[in-house]
Amino acid sequence: SQTIHQWPATLVQPVGSPLSLECTVEGTSNPNLYWYRQAAGRGLQLLFYSVGIGQISSEVPQNLSASRPQDRQFILSSKKLLLSDSGFYLCAWRGWKGNTIYFGEGSWLTVV
Amino acid sequence: EDQVTQSPEALRLQEGESSSLNCSYTVSGLRGLFWYRQDPGKGPEFLFTLYSAGEEKEKERLKATLTKKESFLHITAPKPEDSATYLCAVQANRDDKIIFGKGTRLHILP
């Protein structure tokens, strides 16, 4: 069966520091991968999605970036965090045959 | 632009009191409409996928229906453990983006 892992689960970072959140999927190949952010009152905001290695689509202009160095690995990064980057970050995957996306457990980021 | 609007934002029901949550959508060519349940501090849990108007799916006390403009999540005789945020999302035929509504926070009182 397929599983998705996200880490770290929680982190507290100072303003201006870098960020790296990692997501890996097991039990499938060539998945579509997604990064969402969930802030209070704004619902799930799509940040990036990827249909293959090295292929990244950005939905929201901001100081975040994403990379997909391997088929089942998706990384969310920032060079300098802002206070407004605080939130709950969710990684999700979709199999190449199906339509449904499945989520990881999320990463809580607090920028102080 | 694709849009998903969920109502109400929050709903409080007594245990056993049936109700419906609404998801109105605007999308150019619907590939699929999705319902998820999210507990506090957790990732969303998949409930249903609907593909075409008239389609219905059921799971325990939940039933999802779909028309050309909206979807309903019917909750029959809810229990306190059904308390959660329910999220609706859509995917268009033209790309791989999946757009979510802001959700409905459901609280079932014992």
Compact description:
The complex is a heterodimer of chains A (112) and B (110). By secondary structure, chain A is an all-beta fold.
Note the run of SSEs of chain A as H and E. Answer: EEEEEEEEEEE
Ends of chain A: how far apart?
A: 38 Å
Assembly status: heterodimer
Order of helices and strands of chain B: EEEEEEEEEEE
Proportion of β residues of chain B? over 45%
Keyword list:
heterodimer, A: 112 residues, mainly beta, seven-stranded mixed β-sheet, four-stranded antiparallel β-sheet, 11 strands, B: 110 residues, six-stranded mixed β-sheet, 0% helix, 60% strand, globular
Describe the protein's architecture and organization.
The complex is a heterodimer of chains A (112) and B (110). Chain A is mostly beta strands. Chain A has no helices and 11 strands. Chain A has strands at residues 3-7, 10-13, 19-26, 32-39, 43-52, 55-58, 64-70, 73-78, 87-94, 102-103, 107-111. In chain A, a hairpin with a 2-residue loop joins strand 5 (43-52) and strand 6 (55-58). The N and C termini of chain A lie far apart (38 Å). The model of chain A has no long low-confidence stretch (mean pLDDT 92). In chain B, the strands form 2 sheets. In chain B, strands 2, 4, 5, 9, 10 and 11 form a 6-stranded mixed beta sheet that branches. Chain B is 0% helix and 60% strand. Chain B contains no helices and 11 strands. With 110 residues, chain B is mainly beta. The A-B interface holds A 32, 34, 36, 41-44, 46, 49, 51, 57, 59, 88, 90, 92, 94, 99-106, 108 and B 31-32, 34, 36, 41-46, 49, 51, 87, 89, 91, 96-103.
Show the helix and strand layout.
The complex is a heterodimer of chains A (112) and B (110).
Chain A: E1 3-7, E2 10-13, E3 19-26, E4 32-39, E5 43-52, E6 55-58, E7 64-70, E8 73-78, E9 87-94, E10 102-103, E11 107-111
Parallel strand pairs in A: 2-11
Antiparallel strand pairs in A: 1-3, 3-8, 4-5, 4-9, 5-6, 7-8, 9-10, 9-11
Chain B: E1 3-7, E2 10-14, E3 19-26, E4 30-38, E5 45-50, E6 56-59, E7 62-66, E8 70-75, E9 84-92, E10 98-100, E11 104-109
Parallel strand pairs in B: 2-11
Antiparallel strand pairs in B: 1-3, 3-8, 4-5, 4-9, 6-7, 7-8, 9-10, 9-11
